[in-house]
């Protein structure tokens, strides 16, 4: 394993991204230990997945759109920069949101090529923007962080070729690659192997209304992970007047037609509610999350079913205030039994935090169906096994599963591998274990730049302090697995 030292300039969210392996010179972040039960409200910023879908659809629409309370984090800044580069205008407008301005997006008359898109480490950018770029005239190059160059891209690259787009890559099915858009795509019927990522499907469906014949997309591989995210894509299209539907478990259809402009409020990111809700299992007490949606396609909604497995009581009031309560957390001598849960279809975003808290269970836990997490920001199966083992946990890393048995945990450095969810997982372990230090807590800026402020506020019982919106934004690869 290598550690790199950072000596370059700070990352500028609207400027050039620094894609080399870096370490911020702040040093490791000592994860705070909880000393008393929690009693706090935590307002979670907007959903990454919804914000990014709406940025793409707004840029492809036939009229301007207003996105209220969008997520302002590295992944959405990269997406907004990508749609700008392809010709859309993204303006800021004060919407009174706590975490930054609204976005008003005016679509381009015609999408323009001749640009290089930085995907950072954002799966959404690397899988959603290339199909959009096939509608632009001219060459478009895609690149990203070193860690991003390991993420699967063959589903997108092969699909573009099958749609008649000229793509140049080095044959590895990874970033970087270049493509040459001719300004139009015929579309029609297409087969794809999306077993490595549902985002291959979502990316194609988002641009499909602008294909001459729309798209009938059929998945040919084993199973597609993260099905709720595909439902989210279909729903986003339908909200803009597009005829988009699931034909069967592995086939989706989008009719050609206009994408209308929209004025909408982005839901809070429920996957980012996970560390705060799970904190009650470790520290005991109560965490309240406002604005929990009544109905949603976000996988994070599964937390309402998962937290009770940890002994938590979860309820949502009529005004959308979710309450998650644990009478006796781990630090008060409480306990909960391990469990088995399959994450093949949904919940991959939640697994790292869940695995971390399973390390405190009184019996074995088995988290199965998680092979596709090996292609996420890092190989999350290996990273979790490595870091949990480093703090004393008894973990088996299987091909597609983690088995976690009770053990005495101890302090150690917790490596984040540029992965926001590895960082929040280390913070969860640190609530009950002294001496956990995260090597790269800044990796949380991928989707939650306010993480440190909110986490420390949670422990102090008050998260109302103003938080820096333009927090340093990274995705810096500090340590390789
Ligand atoms: O469509 C989306 O917004 C996402 C789909 C999922 O990807 P995979 O299908 O690659 O797991 C999820 O893990 C990712 O965080 C966001
Ligand atoms: C897998 C994730 O991100 P991405 O959108 O980069 O795939 C995630 O946020 O957990």
Describe the fold and architecture.
Helix 1 (48-60) runs parallel beside helix 6 and helix 5 packs parallel to helix 6 (227-238). This protein is 25% helix and 20% strand. The N and C termini lie close together (6 Å). A 4-stranded mixed β-sheet has the order 2-15-17-16. It has a 4-stranded mixed β-sheet with strand order 4-5-3-14, with helices on one face. The protein is built from 12 helices and 23 strands. It is an alpha/beta fold. The model is unreliable at 1-25 (pLDDT under 50). The protein has 2 domains: 29-46 and 267-460, Alpha-beta prism (UDP-n-acetylglucosamine1-carboxyvinyl-transferase, Chain); 48-265, Enolpyruvate transferase domain (UDP-n-acetylglucosamine1-carboxyvinyl-transferase, Chain, Alpha-beta prism), CATH 3.65.10. The structure holds shikimate-3-phosphate and phosphoenolpyruvate.
So what's the overall shape?
Answer: globular
Strand content: 15-25%
The main pleated sheet reads as: 4 strands, mixed
Category by helix and strand content: alpha/beta
Number of helices: 12
CATH topology of the largest domain: UDP-n-acetylglucosamine1-carboxyvinyl-transferase, Chain
Query: How many domains in all?
Result: 2
Protein name: 3-phosphoshikimate 1-carboxyvinyltransferase
Family: Belongs to the EPSP synthase family.
EC number: 2.5.1.19
InterPro entries: Enolpyruvate_Tfrase_dom, Enolpyruvate_Tfrase_sf, EPSP_synthase, EPSP_synthase_CS, RNA3'P_cycl/enolpyr_Trfase_a/b
